[in-house]
Backbone:
């Protein structure tokens, strides 16, 4: 019995230590931006742009496909069910709640974890193994400022833009498929959407996506930078980055939803 | 680029450990003489790499003093040490080049980041450096696509790109093509004669190199650097 309690205690302490170390890592990464002084910021800006290109721009085809599929499924399913109740005007609310508030941010975050979270953790892990991070230090290039910070910022910017794009494409795709299959009229679709959308949806969307991006790329960079030099640690770090990111992002999105729901009830 | 001249380097009763029970260095006293070529030798795991990291300010001694120009730099932060580190060039035993950048970009990163030379002069400067080791035709290739000998030459060459006062070369001839070794000797001599290179610290037991570039040989032990 005591052995089980010991194991629970060890597990809790491990989680606490990892969380504390990660917070210190994030703090030092942002602090490094203030130590850049008179450095030429061009190479750092180039790293930031590269991250936005790989995470944001290159993910567009996949995001487009999944957004069209999501929008179409929701429009078709909700139309079919709502017509039974004779309340098709509720379709706008269902679209806003499912696509813009919930599925858009969550699906975009999961796609970014699968495409870029893994790539960042693997890249930084390999850089540690090949002594590239150590080489940067010997060249007086602070890796937290040159490697980590642009990746976190680039990830946040990419995720916010991708989620906005996902929402637009999901709504357009939903209309096109709805129009094709059930002759959904554009004016009706636009009207129900305009009634359902509130200014809070825009701000909530930005907050959710920027914080999800921050969580994903903080975890990925932390796990990658924690590789100590053996090649077999790289896939282990990547797996940890994916598992921890998914758990953290889902928990974060769920807590925001619960908070909004509780506030609406109150 | 703000950097300070390095007039003297000295270790006074320096001690360092990763694990307090097992010290890597203890009570080390050593003065590096300007103009001298110093060969550091010792078995694998004797602390050569740790000594280099201490000299480069990547690690700090926990005991004694590491003095540069008479000032103890033990407690200098990474950025405070920059003014000395920018006058130090270092090449790795294995690896060390940035793999997602071409050879040219590897050199360019260092010059761009520290604003060394005017931007318009940087391309010619890098190509001129590369010509010494016949790397100019491979300048747009990434490290994975060139021979290991060329990678080694590029890594050694990069250590000289900011015209430093100190160079620390870890096994520079290991894996380097035989035809490049005279070029390396010539490079060191040129930087000593024409530029500001004062301290050359090499980890090597390559007799061929030592014959071509004679210097003092010291052995790394836990208690010091013995002649």
Residues:
């Amino acid at each position: 019995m005591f052995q089980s309690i010991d194991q629970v205690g060890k597990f809790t302490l491990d989680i606490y230590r990892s969380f504390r170390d990660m917070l210190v890592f994030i703090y030092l990464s942002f602090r490094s931006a203030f130590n850049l002084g008179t450095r030429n910021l061009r190479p750092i800006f180039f790293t930031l742009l590269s991250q936005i290109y790989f995470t944001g721009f290159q993910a567009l085809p996949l995001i487009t496909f999944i957004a069209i599929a999501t929008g179409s499924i929701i429009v078709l399913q909700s139309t079919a069910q709502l017509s039974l109740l004779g309340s098709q005007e509720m379709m706008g609310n269902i679209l806003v709640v499912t696509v813009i508030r919930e599925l858009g941010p969550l699906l975009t975050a999961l796609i970014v974890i699968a495409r870029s979270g893994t790539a960042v953790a693997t890249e930084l892990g390999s850089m540690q193994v090949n002594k590239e991070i150590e080489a940067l230090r010997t060249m007086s290039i602070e890796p937290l400022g040159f490697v980590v910070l642009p990746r976190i910022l680039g990830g946040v910017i990419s995720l916010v833009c991708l989620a906005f794009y996902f929402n637009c494409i999901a709504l357009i795709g939903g209309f096109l498929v709805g129009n094709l299959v059930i002759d959904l009229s554009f004016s009706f679709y636009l009207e129900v959407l305009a009634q359902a959308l509130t200014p809070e949806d825009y701000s909530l969307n930005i907050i959710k996506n920027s914080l999800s991006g921050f969580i994903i790329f903080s975890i990925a960079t932390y796990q990658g930078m924690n590789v100590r030099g053996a090649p077999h640690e790289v896939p282990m770090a990547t797996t940890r980055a994916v598992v921890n990111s998914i758990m953290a992002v889902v928990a974060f999105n769920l807590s925001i939803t619960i908070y909004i729901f509780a506030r609406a009830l109150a | 680029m703000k950097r300070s001249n390095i007039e003297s380097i000295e270790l006074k009763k320096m001690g360092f450990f990763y694990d307090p029970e097992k010290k890597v260095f203890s009570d080390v006293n050593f003065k590096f003489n300007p103009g001298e070529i110093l060969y550091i030798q010792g078995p694998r795991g004797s602390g050569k790499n740790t000594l280099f990291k201490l000299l480069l300010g990547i690690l700090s001694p926990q005991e004694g003093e590491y003095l540069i120009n008479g000032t103890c730099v033990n407690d200098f932060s990474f950025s405070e040490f920059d003014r000395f580190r920018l006058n130090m060039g270092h090449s790795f035993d294995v690896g060390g080049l940035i793999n997602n950048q071409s050879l040219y970009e590897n050199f360019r990163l260092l010059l761009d980041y520290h604003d060394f030379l005017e931007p318009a002069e940087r391309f010619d400067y890098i190509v001129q450096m590369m010509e010494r080791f016949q790397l100019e035709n491979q300048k747009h290739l990434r490290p994975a696509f060139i021979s290991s000998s060329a990678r080694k030459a590029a890594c050694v060459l990069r250590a000289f790109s900011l015209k430093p006062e100190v160079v620390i070369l870890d096994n520079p001839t290991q894996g380097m093509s035989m035809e490049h070794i005279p070029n390396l000797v010539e490079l060191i001599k040129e930087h000593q004669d024409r530029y500001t290179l004062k301290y050359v610290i090499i980890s090597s037991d390559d007799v061929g190199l030592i014959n071509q570039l004679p210097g003092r040989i010291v052995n790394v032990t836990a208690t010091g650097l013995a002649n």
In short: The helical segments of chain B are 48-55, 78-85, 103-113, 119-131, 148-158, 181-193, 207-212. The domain at 9-226 of chain B is CATH 3.40.50.300 (Rossmann fold).
